[in-house]
Write a structure and sequence with these properties.
Elements lengths: L1 H14 L6 E2 L4 H6 L4 E2 L2 E7 L5 H11 L5 E7 H7 L4 H6 L7 E6 L2 H12 L4 E8 L6 H14 L2 E6 L11 E7 L12 E9 L5 E8 L4 E4 L16 H5 L1
Parallel strand pairs: 3-7, 3-8, 4-5, 4-6, 6-7
Antiparallel strand pairs: 1-2, 8-9, 9-10, 10-11
Length: 242
């Protein structure tokens, strides 16, 4: 195992995690700042601004995950009690078929980290998501997750209920909170604020995003084209003048 870890470390030193590919957001300002998108073969941390914003952070994570390949979602049982489980109908609306999601529930954080590491080493899996509460993770465990992601070019996502200020091997760190929807005809589209607070590529940023039903992905708020109602063809003359 030590020999394999040394090989992975040497490969990372020569290529870097970004060379394994990217999961593009499809949003030019974000993809440019990240050097092409969210780096594959690396660990990324997404934290809710507070526990009240965990739903917004979860939607951001689902939007990141690739719908074309298998995703493993691992969560602590306490997180299920406090935040609930994934909704199949919601996954359908984001083009994530529930049958491509493998969900695992564990009791201890140690088991969650072990399950994440094992899933990251599976060639059939593209994204592994670990949902945990407010527990701190040892730097060695984070490093192991980074190495496991680099081994197969998978994406490791840690979903936290609150931000963590400790040092991490994560390639990026995000803080996500719910935001006001943009004014429209009727209820506005789901809207979140995503703040990039750590980026190995250098630049940081802050964006307000909304979910586009047309593109089936997040877009910059206010740029999502929506159909506008056609004018009424037959109107009384007084209404036409008004």
């Amino acid at each position: 195992m030590l020999t394999e870890l040394r090989k992975i470390l040497r490969r990372l030193e020569h290529t870097g995690p970004g060379d394994a590919g990217f999961l593009p957001f499809g949003i030019a300002p974000i993809d440019t700042m990240l050097g092409g998108g969210l780096a594959c073969g690396a660990l990324h941390e997404i934290a809710a601004a507070s526990e009240g914003h965990i739903a917004a952070a979860t939607s951001f994570v689902v939007g990141i995950a690739s719908p074309r390949r298998a995703t493993v979602w691992i969560t602590q049982d306490m997180a299920l009690v406090e935040s609930g489980a994934l909704c199949g109908a919601g996954l359908d609306e984001t083009s994530h078929y529930p049958e491509r999601f493998t969900t695992v529930t564990v009791t201890r954080m140690h088991d969650l980290l072990w399950a994440m590491e094992e899933a990251l080493r599976c060639c059939a899996v593209m994204t592994v998501i670990g949902e945990l509460r407010n527990e701190r993770i040892e730097p060695v465990a984070l490093r192991r997750l980074s190495l496991a992601a680099a081994a197969n070019g998978a994406v490791a996502l840690l979903l936290r209920a609150t931000p963590d200020s400790k040092a991490s091997t994560a390639a990026t760190r995000w803080i996500v909170n719910a935001s006001l929807s943009q004014p429209r005809y009727g209820p506005g589209l789901p809207c979140i604020n995503a703040q990039l607070i750590r980026n190995r590529k250098g630049p940081l940023g802050n964006w307000t995003l909304e979910w586009s039903d047309i593109d089936e992905r997040f877009v910059i708020a206010g740029t999502n084209p929506q159909p506008v109602a056609q004018p009424v063809a037959n109107r009384p003359p007084r209404a036409a003048v008004a």
